[in-house]
Amino acid sequence: MVPGAPSTTTTMLPASEAAKIYQTNYVRNSRAIGVLWAIFTILFAIVNVVCFIQPYWIGDGMDTPQAGYFGLFHYCIGNGLSRDLTCQGSFTEFSSIPSGAFKAASFFIGMSMVLVLTCIGCFALFFFCSTGTVYKICGWMQLAAGTCLILGCMIYPDGWDSDEVKRMCGEQTDKYTLGACSVRWAYILAIMGIMDALILSFLAFVLGNRQDSLMSEELLGDSKKMIPYMVHNG
């Protein structure tokens, strides 16, 4: 030590206080991540609804015989005589969907949408059930929604050989071969939604496990506090 210099002493926090500070930061960080997870889950639900409703999965190009675009169940094709498009197809009228593959894709994308919306509805369970349990329930729902999206995106090109698609895209169009047409933004958005679902489900399981470990630490701390009290009163 240099003479005349102020003395510096390092004080160590007791283990119990350090544990409390760590636990407080742990809880604060978990809540912040949980809020972000909930926000991105709502955004993912919006993306899912848009992909299901919008008929812009594939569309015409520069060299296509007819103008038009196709969605999961709704499609519009020109007649070659005017710029007017004739639109057909409805999810409520399954028979109007031009391909069995389009019907299957519509079912799986619709199921994904229902699962994500149900997951958002499960947010109310945070007020009644264990936080870790709710995270895990939502995680399984998001994983199932992502699986449905994968199946829908994989099955959809199998219907490109239908007569209606060939009428718009040309005779060279076949299964998984789009011919003169091109992929539109709704299909790309659905593929991006797959990654969103997998990331959100992984994050939900991580948050659920963190909540379980936090609860076990709290129970362990309470039990340690009760032992001296019981010995003293005994």
Please describe what this structure looks like:
By secondary structure, this protein is α+β, with helices and mostly antiparallel strands. 61% of the residues lie in helices and 6% in strands. It has 5 helices and 5 strands, in the order H-E-E-E-E-H-H-H-E-H. Strands 4-3-2-1-5 form a 5-stranded antiparallel sheet. A hairpin with a 4-residue loop joins strand 2 (68-70) and strand 3.
Find the structural class using helix and strand composition. alpha+beta
Beta-strand fraction estimate: 5-15%
Count of beta strands: 5
Measured between the Cα atoms of the first and last residue, the distance is 51 Å
Mean pLDDT score, rounded? 82
Keywords, separated by commas or semicolons:
alpha+beta; disordered C terminus; 234 residues; 5 strands
Can you describe this structure in just a few lines?
The protein is of the alpha+beta class and 234 residues long.
Write the layout of secondary structure elements.
Layout: H1 15-53, E1 58-59, E2 68-70, E3 75-78, E4 85-88, H2 100-121, H3 131-155, H4 163-169, E5 182-183, H5 185-233
Antiparallel strand pairs: 1-2, 1-5, 2-3, 3-4
Helix pairs in contact: 1-2, 1-5, 2-3, 3-5
